[in-house]
User: What shape does this take?
Amino acid sequence: MKRIGIMTSGGDAPGMNAAVRAVARKAITEGLEVYGINYGFAGLVAGDIFKMEAATVSDMISRGGTMLFSARYPEFAQEETQLKGIAQLNKFGIDALVVIGGDGSYHGALRLTEHGYNAIGLPGTIDNDIPYTDFTIGFDTAVNTALDAIDKLSDTAASHERTFVVEVMGRGAGDIALWAGVAGGAADVIIPEHDFDVEAVAAKLKSSRERGQKHAIIVLAEGVMHADEFAAKLNQYGDFQTRATVLGHVQRGGSPTAKDRVLASKMGAYAVELLMQGKGGLAIGIQNNQLVNHAMTDLFNSKHETELSLYKLAEDLSY
Ligand code: F6P
Assistant: This one.
């Protein structure tokens, strides 16, 4: 193997650049040539590919977003489109590649491996919804961004004795909500993985108010319902001075935390080691603080397990 390609695919996540840097620098250290592929699988098919040097990734470790741009490209599910991508890999002499993205991106990576171009997947998404990894690249930063907003909303909530419903991202996963909720001292966390009862939430707020706790933060995962809808339902059971805030894409941006940078660096270097061993079709993860790799096919048949003990913890610690 002489040349490897790198791409980022799906939604961007803080730490993707740190992962690109790690792949590029480790590969160059090992004597390989590195090619960046812009716009994920769409850019591969279009031949939007360029040679990267060690300097290309200078100062990238601290930057949010992705220097390689990203795109969602469902067309890559078609064999005809895959063959166009392979023609580009051949044209640039790329033997193997690293794909940084979510679950969807792994399908494209697996197709390339099946065609004889080893591809390794790195979990890059704020959602933390990928099986066989405790953490994805970008999750920690997104949680801290959500937490910063929750802390600020708590200040104004306390000043006006209001209840804030704060909607966070996560697609179908409640991980951002749980982590930001526990860390932000939320009165309740509403996630898709756990049933909930708005009347019970209202009863809890009422009794908290009677005990003197007159403001509250409720963290709501986007996979459940819109914050305005939840606030309207809550208001049917009492006057909680409710306000709804949707944090949205602010959670996708920003300089990655140290934890995300280190995770991305470890995973990026490990991906290059695996490719040098002639391996492909693997997804990298971190489990119990150890780097692991699993067959992508195993991931497609599994579900990410949200740490539900955090749900009970949030309940137990609310007042
Ligand atoms: O997967 C990351 C994510 O930000 C999800 O949390 C969210 O549901 C989705 O992407 C939003 O997608 P888009 O940026 O395409 O609107």
Observations:
- The chain has a mean pLDDT of 97.
- The first strand starts at residue 3 and ends at 8.
